[in-house]
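=== Structure Prediction Worksheet ===
Name of assembly: unnamed complex
Input type: mixed (protein and possibly other molecules)
Chain count: two
Listed entries:
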Amino acid sequence: MLGEGIIKGMTETARNFLGSYVSKHRLVTVQYPEERLPPKEAARQFPFLVYDGDDWRKGLRCVACQICEKECPPQCIYIRKSKDKKPDYLGKAQLYPAVFDIDYSVCMSCQICVEVCPFDAIKMDTEYELSTDNRFEGLLVHVDQLAKSNEYYRRIHPVEAAETDGRLAGQKARAEAKTKADAEAKVKAAATLNSAAPTPTP
Amino acid sequence: MAAEGELLEVAMGPQHPSTHGVFRMDVVLDGERVVKLKPVFGYLHRNHEKIAESTTYLGSMPYTDRLDYFCSLTNNWAYALAVEKLAGLQVPERAEYIRVITAELTRLQNHCCLIGFLLQDMGALGTPLMYAFREREKILDLFEALTGARMMCNYMRFGGCRVDLPEGWVQEAKQVADEFPRFLDEFERLLRENEILMARTQGIGTLPKELAVNAGVTGPMLRASGVNYDIRKVDRYGIYDRFDLKVPLGDHGDVFDRYMIRVLEMRESVKILQRALNDLPPGPIIDPKAKLRGFRPKPGEAYGRIEAPKGELGFYLISGGSPNPYRYRVRPPSLINLTILEDMCLGQLVADAVIILGSVDIVLGEVDR
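=== Predicted Assembly ===
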C-alpha cells in the first residue's frame, strides 16, 4: 500500500517523542549554562604552567629550556630566558622564564608541548570558557596568568597528577640519595686521605 | 528569466547549505535538467602539504586531524602508517587493537553523520540527523575520555598510541557497540521503506562500475557500484587479517545503494568492534624504539594507505634524512570521489544534484587541504 512506509516511519518518530518523557536514553540534551556534564579526566583545552608551593615566582617548574617553543606546531609559545638562576625543586640552580607567553588564539590544543616537556612543567588545562572582548591582548596570556598550582593540577587531572607526583618524588629521592652518597664519599675520601696523610715518610 | 530553449547558468555555492562547506557547483540548466556541471573547489585551501614539509614529522600529526575533521583518528592512522614504513617501526599488539577499535568507531560516527546529512539534503529536515547525532555523541564521548578531544584527537604516534585506555573505557565502548545495532534497526524502520525516499534516490545519480574504476573512486561509493574493493581486505594492514570481514556491495550504483551501503557497513563495523574489544590483549602501547623528539628517519620514501570511512586515504612521504619530510603528499578520498560528480549529475534534476553530492560524502577540509 502506498504510504505504508511513511506511516511506519512516523510510528518510530512517535515512539522517540513519547519515549523522551520516560527514557533517559532518548532525552540526552543538557541545558548548557545551567547544567553541565561532569568533566572528563583526559579533557584538554589549553596549556598552563605548574608550580609547587605557594608562590609561583619561587616554585615554577619551568626552566626555560625552550623545547616546547621549538616543537609547538603552530608556534604559539614565546619564551625569553632569565639572566640569573634560582633553585628548582631539586635544589639545583636553574634558569627560569623571564617571559613566557602563549597565544591562545593560535594554540590548537594538540598537547605536543606537554609530551615533549622533560620537567613536567607544562600541562593541559580544562578551562573552556575563555571568551574575551579583546581579541589581541585578551587571548595572549603571560606567565602570571599561566602559572597554576600543583593542587589545581591534581584537582583537574587526578590520575595523571598522581603519576607525575610519583615520578617527581622518585627523581627527588634519587637526587637526594646521590647528593648524600656524594657527601659520604667525600667524607670517606677525606678520611682516607687524612688517615693516609699521617703515615710518616721518613 | 530564461526564454524557451535558452540555457541558464547557476552558481550553487560557495555559501549554499547543500554543499557541506565552501564548495561551488557551476551548473548549466536546461529547464530543470543539468546539462553541464563544473565543480569549483579551493576555497578552504590551507597549504597543509607545504606546511608539513617545514614542520617536524610529529608536528604534522595534529594537522592531519584537520583534513577530514569527522575522522581524525583514521587520518592519524594513515599518516602514522606511512611514517612507520619509512622508519621501520613495529607497532605493539595492543596498540594495533586500539587502532582498529578507534578506526571502527570513527567509521561508525562518520557514516552516522553522513546518512543524517544525506537525508536532510533530501528534505527530511532535522529528525533523522538529530537521531544520528544522538548516537554520534556517545562515540565522541568515548573519544574524549580516551584522547582528550572530541574531534581533533591527535592520538596516534609513530610506533603506537599516545596514552593507554583509561579505566572502564572498554566496558563503555562495549556498551556503545552493543547498543548500536538497536539504533540501526530504529533508523532503518524510520526511513528504509519510505516511498518518498525511494522515489528520490532509486535510479538517481547512477555510477557505472567501469566509470567508477576508471575515475579512481574508492570507498563506499565504489562498493555501491558493485566493485569488491576494500583496502582492509586487499592490504590487510594492521591486524585486519584477523577479522572476518564481510564487504557489502551494491548493484545499481545509485544514491539509494550508496545510502544502504553505509548502513550495512556500520553493521559490519560493529561486529569488528565487538571482536576487537573482546580480544584486546595487555601489553605496551608504543614501540620502545620510537622517539618523540629528534625523530629523523633515514632517507627513503613510503606510501601508507588505509580504508578511511570515505575511501582510500594515503600519505606519500619522501625523507631526506632531516627532521622534516622532503615531500609530503596526501591522497584524499573526498577529492578524487568528487571528480566524477559531473558524470553522475548530467541529465538529472537540479534538486537531485544536491543529493548526489550528498551521497558522495565529502568534507571540504580534505578536498581543499
